[in-house]
Amino acid sequence: MPAPSPRRSPDFSARSLAIGPTGIRKMFDLATAETLQFGLGEPDFQPPAVAVEAFHKAMVDGYNKYTTQAGYPPLREAIAASWAAYRPGLDSSHVCITMSGTNALLDCAMILVDPGDNVLVPDPGFPLYGPHATIFGGTERAYACDFAHEFVPQIETLEALVDARTRAIVVNFPSNPTGATLTVAQRDELIAFARRHDLWIISDEVYDRIIYDRPHVSFLTPDYDKVLMVNSFSKTLAMTGWRIGYVLSPHAEAMQLIMKLQYYVTACSNDAMQRAVLVALEHASDYPTQMVAAFRARRDVMVRRLNAMPGVSCHKPEGAFYVFPKVDVGGLGCEDIAMAILADGVLCSPGTAFGFAGHGHLRLAYTTSMANIERGLDVIEATLARLTESVATVI
Ligand SMILES: Cc1ncc(COP(=O)(O)O)c(C=O)c1O
Question: Which atom of ligand 1 lies at the shortest distance from residue 204's CA?
Fold first, then answer.
């Protein structure tokens, strides 16, 4: 009889133990009902009324059962059509509906990562990408997206990290947490890098419709097939609680694998909800544009006021609904600064919740009213002034 394998203590998988809790939730859990929120990445709007009504109607009409693994075909067809300008020739076979962008990202890691593989992930970046690689026995290799380069990765940084076991690069533009976007030339350089090393591109484009000053630049192009584009309706239709997203890829084999495996993850998505989202795509297609008008005004106030605070510098983001200012208060760490601001009644996330390169930064989501933004910024200004003074006194 083979010897029993050594027991781990406690009795859980090394992979699950290796993954830490998310730093975003840590701050959230410390907030009270009175705390002003710049913490959560979700629109402060409700989904389009037509979608809510259609969801209710679909349930009344009896769409309360399991449905196909890959999702409701007319919805998949509509999604494929919505990307035709980026990549002609797509149809429903290139789309798998998932129960969120999070689920879609997990699917991508699931079909690409074997034990020993590594995945290039942005730093600062949305904190799921690395743990998803870990779940499948891989590792993350964080590539820095520096303030000095407007949070756009440099090709030499990527070249220094890639090796024969690198399977994929995750890219996220517009970015959470920085709001950064890419030019077409920058996107093409990243595609050329992926081509040189035969990498998959997992492109998280959940903020594609939350974009301000120039059109969205997608990694979905006629030029590169090894792209898995992840999307979601959480942000663009203000339905973070519904949990619906999708993977879209021109790569037929990748899509077949994802559709097969989706059964083992959630079996299928919610039937009534998919019908409601289709109604929203057909009848409320300008909904993101309406939200963007409000977000743009808030962004402008955030950036102007933050840049007027001593020790703070903030790029003007071109997409998403976050600012990621650099905050230099007498050498204090961003976690201490975020805790001091929280004690004064405003929640924002320390940059380190998004990776090592987030040191010295805070993330503020402008997903609250203009009045709250003004009040919250008053508090932050006073907290930073007090911290600066107390540090100066100690020195
Ligand atoms: C960059 C990015 N990708 C994916 C997601 C996941 O979105 P959801 O799971 O709600 O679809 C988020 C949510 O904050 C995000 O910011």
Answer: 3
Q: Give the mean model confidence (pLDDT) for residues 365-378.
A: 98
Phi-psi region of 229 (alpha: psi -120 to 50; beta: other; left: phi over 0): beta
Cross-strand bridge partners of residue 121: 142
Report, as an integer, the average pLDDT of 208-228. Answer: 96
Cis ω before 124 (30° cut-off from 0) = yes
Binding site membership of 224 for ligand 1 (Cβ less than 6 Å): no
Better-predicted residue by pLDDT, 65 or 3: 65
pLDDT average, residue stretch 289-297: 97
Q: Counting Cβ atoms within 10 Å, is residue 237 exposed (0-12), middle (13-18) or buried (19+)?
A: buried
Q: Taking the domain 49-283, which CATH number applies?
A: 3.40.640.10
Q: Which residues sit opposite 96 in a β-bridge?
A: 247
Average pLDDT, the chain: 95
**For residue 94, what is the DSSP state?**
G
Q: Where in the chain is the domain with CATH 3.90.1150.10?
A: 14-46+287-394
pLDDT at 40: 86
Q: Is 367 in the pocket of ligand 1 (CB under 6 A)?
A: no
319 lines ligand 1 (CB under 6 A): no
CATH of domain 14-46+287-394: 3.90.1150.10
Residue 25's pLDDT is what?
72
111 lines ligand 1 (CB under 6 A): no
> pTM for this structure?
0.95
Tokens of 196: 């040189």
Distance 126 CA to ligand 1 centre (A): 8
Look at residue 124 in the predicted model and tell me its pLDDT.
98
CB 52 within 8 A of CB 46: yes
Joined together, the tokens standing for residue 208 give 């594609």
Q: Determine whether the shortest distance from the Cβ of 270 to ligand 1 is under 6 A.
A: no
Residue of minimum CA distance from atom 14 in ligand 1: 41
Q: How far apart are CA 330 and CA 255, in angstroms?
A: 51
Q: Where in the chain is the domain with CATH 3.40.640.10?
A: 49-283
Query: Ligand 1: does its nearest atom lie under 6 Å from the Cβ of 101?
Result: yes
pLDDT tops 90 at residue 314: yes
d(CA 215, CA 319): 10
| Separation CA 105–CA 170 (nearest Å) | 10
